Amino acid sequence: MPALEPAAIHAQLRRRFGEAVGDLVGSGRDASTTVAAPALPDVCRFLKTEPALAFDCLSNLSGVDYPKRNVIQVVYHLFSYRHRHWCVLKVDANRDAPVVPTVSHLWSHANWQEREVFDLLGVTFEGHPDLRRILMPEDWPGHPLRKDFVEPEEYHGIVTSRESLLKP
Amino acid sequence: MSLAGFEVEVQREVDGALATEDMTLSMGPQHPSTHGVLRFVVRADGEVMKEAIPDVGYLHRSIEKIAEKVGWHGFIPYTDRVDYVAAMFCNHGWAMAVEKLAGIEVPRRAEYCRVIADELCRIHSHLLSVGSMAMDIGAFTPFTHAIREREYLNDLFEELCGARLTFHYMRIGGVGWDLPPGWAEKVRRFLDRFEPIIEEYDRLISYNKIYAERLANVAVITPEEAIDYNLVGPNLRGSGVRYDVRRDDPYSVYPELEFDVPVGRGEMGTVGDCFDRYIVRMREMQQSCRIIRQCLDRLPEGPVIAKVPRNLKPPPGDCYVRIESARGDMGWYVVSDGTAFPHRCKIRTGSFAAISIIPKVSRNLMIADLIAVIASLDLVAPEIDR
């Protein structure tokens, strides 16, 4: 079966999920669509199991902080090894208490990627089997990839900064 | 050492008159065969592992956060540190992402220089991988052979860009320097010397009975599992999936070049075992030699860098690009908000996916085999942690 264009994939999603799926934005492979957080697991299951779509691989999962919109966006890059086509989904979560449903039951790769986004941006993935910090220490305060993150002065007595050597 | 977050229940079984108990071992973070600062918490019954849980993050330097602070051009030297064993690819990935966002066209000669540097770097990285793999398994001599060849490559890189490991060779819009005079001839001489050495290496170690049996049928990964865990590169191809970004989603000048994509065939045991992942790397080095020869023959004249404003401000938008690094498909998701600094840069690396499959494949393996699994997946700790 041939690879589908993002517009064709988007049309299928629209037909099935209606208003939960936003407009297609952008061009080429980077064309993306927003998905309402509650609909995400169903949309993903459809993308994975529908034979003409068959997105068997979660290529990338990233979190992006947009403080001006008060949103943390989780971006899913899905790829189908069978059909060699792409789909980019974006889910907006409220920055004050970001919660997004997990997709780790659909793609095992999501398990660690979601842990990373939880660790660095503080997004809670509902239903994740093992949501704990992955890169930062267990007791680290805050989430470093947030735009307003302030590095603590010290961590367990270790100073985290030093004076610039360039200053006179 | 804290086992925080890794508490495991001690299980007692009464086996006749003897009660047995599982051991919980902390392997690493300083362990000679964990390829960097990497730790595993292993629950074992005697020498058989029931579970091996990776604990990563010891090399986390927040490179993605640094990207947001140093600007588009300024980030290139940092990309070297994402995967310092194969720094060229990280340079290339970042440059490609920014070029796509800003709509910059790269001169043809620069693309060829990039591919030559990439493929030399692939050999550079695979030599370390296969050499240290042999050493991890107990064969010391092959490591010295691999490092000897790698040393010649270091010299070539030093002449090309002044550095032996963290190259900082590529720039947004091209490469930093043209090939130095006489360098192409030196590369040819290296290839003439190196190609027979791959065969020597095969005789020395690849088909050595003890070595092959240590790897055959160990940690078999099926194609479905490999795709589910998003394994990439030689780890994916070791499982028999013939997918290579260079061929199937080509970038730069790869569409003009001829090369094969080797996959695991279960030569010594089952498709997708440690041996297959190892042998795919050996065969890939031969293909890299082929690619470099073609590039040297076709190298066009012209500039090696496009005109790129110093104060670069790509238009707002995002893009996702992939390149085939030594550890496979490396993804760069870059968001621009139209300012002189990237809004976000996410780097998705092959080792991060590869290590996440270890809890699954290590069940019921011997502890000594865990070392073979780590080596066969070619884990590079800085790439996991970034």
Layout of secondary structure:
The complex is a heterodimer of chains A (168) and B (386).
Chain A: H1 6-17, E1 21-25, E2 32-35, H2 40-49, E3 57-66, E4 71-79, E5 86-94, E6 99-101, H3 109-121, E7 124-126, E8 154-155, E9 158-159
Parallel strand pairs in A: 2-5, 6-7
Antiparallel strand pairs in A: 1-2, 3-4, 4-5, 8-9
Chain B: E1 12-15, E2 18-21, E3 23-27, E4 39-45, E5 48-55, H1 63-70, H2 76-80, H3 87-102, H4 108-137, H5 141-161, E6 170-171, E7 174-175, H6 183-206, H7 209-215, H8 223-228, H9 234-238, H10 245-248, H11 274-298, E8 317-325, E9 328-336, E10 342-348, H12 350-356, H13 358-361, H14 367-376, H15 381-385
Antiparallel strand pairs in B: 1-2, 3-4, 4-5, 6-7, 8-9, 9-10
Helix pairs in contact in B: 3-4, 4-5, 4-11, 4-14, 5-6, 6-11
Give short descriptive properties of this protein.
heterodimer, A: 168 residues, alpha/beta, Beta Polymerase, domain 2, 5-stranded mixed β-sheet, two-stranded parallel sheet, elongated, B: 386 residues, alpha+beta, Cytochrome-c3 Hydrogenase, chain B, 3-stranded antiparallel β-sheet, 15 helices
What would a concise description of this structure say?
The complex is a heterodimer of chains A (168) and B (386). By secondary structure, chain A is an alpha/beta fold.
Question: What can you tell me about this protein's structure?
Answer:
The complex is a heterodimer of chains A (168) and B (386). In chain A, strands 1-2-5-4-3 form a five-stranded mixed sheet, with helices on one face. In chain A, strands 6-7 form a two-stranded parallel ribbon. A two-stranded antiparallel sheet of chain A has the order 8-9. Chain A is built from three helices and nine strands. Chain A has one domain (6-159): Beta Polymerase, domain 2, CATH 3.30.460.80. The N and C termini of chain A lie far apart (67 Å). Chain A is of the alpha/beta class. Chain A has helices at residues 6-17, 40-49, 109-121, and strands at residues 21-25, 32-35, 57-66, 71-79, 86-94, 99-101, 124-126, 154-155, 158-159. Chain B has a domain at 104-311 and 366-385: Cytochrome-c3 Hydrogenase, chain B. Chain B has 15 helices and ten strands. With 386 residues, chain B is α+β, with helices and mostly antiparallel strands. In chain B, the strands form four sheets. In chain B, strands 3-4-5 form a three-stranded antiparallel sheet. In chain B, strands 8-9-10 form a three-stranded antiparallel sheet. Chain A binds chain B through residues 26, 29-30, 32, 56-60, 62-65, 75, 77, 81, 84, 88, 107-109, 111-113, 120, 132-138, 144-145, 147, and chain B through 4-5, 56-57, 60, 62, 64-65, 68, 224-225, 227-230, 241, 243, 248-249, 317-320, 322, 329, 331, 333, 335, 343-344, 346, 348, 352-353, 356-357, 360, 385-386.
